[in-house]
Amino acid sequence: MTKIKPQPKLSEIKEDLSGVKNDLSGVKEDLEAIKSTMATMTTKRELSAFQEESEEFFVAIKKDLDNTATKDDLIVLGSGLESKIDKLGEELRTEISSTFGQILTGQDKVVKMLMDYQSEGAANTSAHKRMDESLENHGKRIGVLETKFSH
């Protein structure tokens, strides 16, 4: 014989339905949280656009790097500059030497003029001294003559 199950009471059914309702409410909250999280997640379309932008950016950087001087370029440039600087240094030394030579030549002329002036001054001093001595000598002689003839 089969045993017949007793029928659940209406209050038990209401209680079971209330538990299911609470469970569905929790599922609804979980679905809302998943929906919110998915709204902030990146889509394939966004990733594809980002990849295209990144590729363009890296192509531009590579192009810039291709135009950037390398160590070897800088060495070649440096050696070229070094030779130009050496050449300018030689030209400057030559110009300074020439100018210095002109200055020394001018100074030699001034020094010669001063030495000539000094020699002339010494000669004039000597001549004046002789003239003074001669005048003194003449003065003494005239004095002697005057004393002789005045008596």
* Coarse shape: rod-shaped
Radius of gyration: 61 Å
Number of strands: 0
Estimated share of beta-strand residues: under 5%
Order of helices and strands: HHH
Number of helices: 3
The secondary structure category is mainly alpha
Q: How many angstroms separate the termini? A: 209 Å
Largest sheet: none
Average pLDDT confidence is: 86
**Which spans of ≥5 residues are poorly predicted at pLDDT below 50?**
none
Helix content: over 70%
Describe the structure.
- This protein is mainly alpha-helical and about 150 residues long.
- It is about 90% helix and about 0% strand.
- It is built from three helices and no strands.
- The protein has helices spanning about 10-40, 45-65, 70-150.
- The protein is rod-shaped, with a radius of gyration of 61 Å.
Summarize the structure.
With 151 residues, this protein is mainly alpha-helical. It contains three helices and no strands.
List keywords for this structure.
151 residues, mainly alpha
Question: What's the topology here?
Answer:
Layout: H1 10-40, H2 44-66, H3 71-149
